[in-house]
TrEMBL record:
Region of interest: Disordered: 62-141
InterPro entries assigned to the protein according to its UniProt record, in alphabetical order: Conidiation-specific_6, UPF0654_domain
Gene Ontology CC annotation, any one: cytoplasm
Comp. bias intervals (Basic and acidic residues): 62-89, 97-108, 121-141
Top-level taxon: Eukaryota
Source organism of the structure: Gymnopilus junonius (Spectacular rustgill mushroom)
UniProt name for this protein: Uncharacterized protein
């Protein structure tokens, strides 16, 4: 038997595989699938790890090359998050409405000011920032 085969069947490998199986039983399968697919498409991941991820996806009955777009929406996770965000938005629209709007406006203006000073920002973006800041100055007078 070659040395690589002995390594493959070593007790630590068996324990690792058992732990991986247990982890997949308790974790959200959609997130596990997403992580495995991410591993396959990550250029810094080794070929061996990519092959292992493909094998795990096949074991889970998932085509590793299938492109998915927000499959988790069917499980309600997206909708639940959307409802929470909407409820939060409605709560903040009460008595703190003016203060929050003012804070948001200050942050927005600060972002435009930062754009003007950022050496990595395009000329067009800086011109747009100048225009927005000038319009704000006119409207606040």
């Amino acid at each position: 038997m070659s040395e690589s085969c002995e390594w493959f069947h070593s007790p630590s490998t068996v324990l690792r595989d058992e732990q991986t199986a247990k982890d997949h039983e308790t974790k959200n399968p959609e997130r596990v699938i997403a992580g495995l697919k991410a591993s396959i498409h990550n250029p810094t991941v080794s070929t061996e790890a990519k092959n292992h991820a493909r094998a795990r996806l096949h074991e889970m009955g998932v085509d590793p090359d299938e492109v998915t777009t927000h499959e988790h929406a069917a499980s309600g996770h997206s909708e639940k998050g959307k409802v929470v965000m909407e409820e939060s938005h409605h709560r903040t629209r009460g008595e703190h409405h003016h203060a929050e709007d003012e804070t948001e406006e200050h942050r927005m203006l600060g972002g435009y000011k930062a754009t003007l000073k950022n050496p990595h920002t395009s000329k067009e973006a800086k011109e747009h920032a100048k225009k927005v800041l000038a319009e704000h100055e006119k409207s606040s007078d």
